[in-house]
Specification:
It is built from 10 helices and 4 strands; from the N terminus they run H-H-E-H-H-H-H-H-H-H-E-H-E-E. By secondary structure, it is mainly alpha-helical. A 4-stranded mixed β-sheet has the order 1-3-4-2, sandwiched between helices.
Length: about 270
Amino acid sequence: MIENSIQQFRAKRRSASQRVNTGDATKQRLGLAQRELARSENETSRALERAGEAQEAQYNPADSINSWADSIDSLRAERASREQSTTGALDTSPINSGTSGSRRPATRFEEGQGRPGGAGGRAGAEEYLGRSLSDVEWDQLLRTTYSESSSNPNEQAAVMSVILNRVNSGRWGETVTSVIQAPNQFQAVTGTANDPGPSRMYRAFNNNGEDLSKFESTITPLLSNYTEQNWLNFTAANRAAYGEGTNVNFLDDLTAAQDSMQIGQTMFGTM
């Protein structure tokens, strides 16, 4: 009896010991897994930090600025090729005059050099023309000038003077409407065979707001600076402005013409 009790006690102790050993092994395996997980998380964190440092090292503000500048230059070149003035240069048959580079204009105006000397607003344009303008003519004169020149006030005034000189000459008609709609003359108005007008800038002119105010106060008073020149032609001074359907040789011919002059981005003269 006593011997049986001793054997039962020993059996229970062995069973308890086995359970303890099994629990310890389980705990050991769990601890090992947790340590592996923690090590993996640390390695992942360090890898992300290294990637972030590498990305920061690759970023160069100067490169971004240069990239933005290149994009802006590309947009400007595209706009120049489509909307800069090419009056008289829309003949698709080139003029091989051989005058390229033979001379440059003797005079070049820069923005701000002109001095207002005449009346401002619509009255200034009518004073230069020598007669009144209809509402339609005035609107068309503003839109054509705006779309055929850069923002240089002297250049804009000179473009307006050419349009009014053409009205007075009668060669292209006796109204602003007939002059600006004459075939192959004002690209911003009639466009080209491949890109019919009017251009976006022609349509965008605000004849009731800031654009009109600037022309009335700044542009039309400068018309008196160009009374004696009596120019009948102008064309883009930037050769990149001449796309398909235009004649870049016209720039060479106009540059070689007597009393030609570059103002802003446009070449002026009489052919």
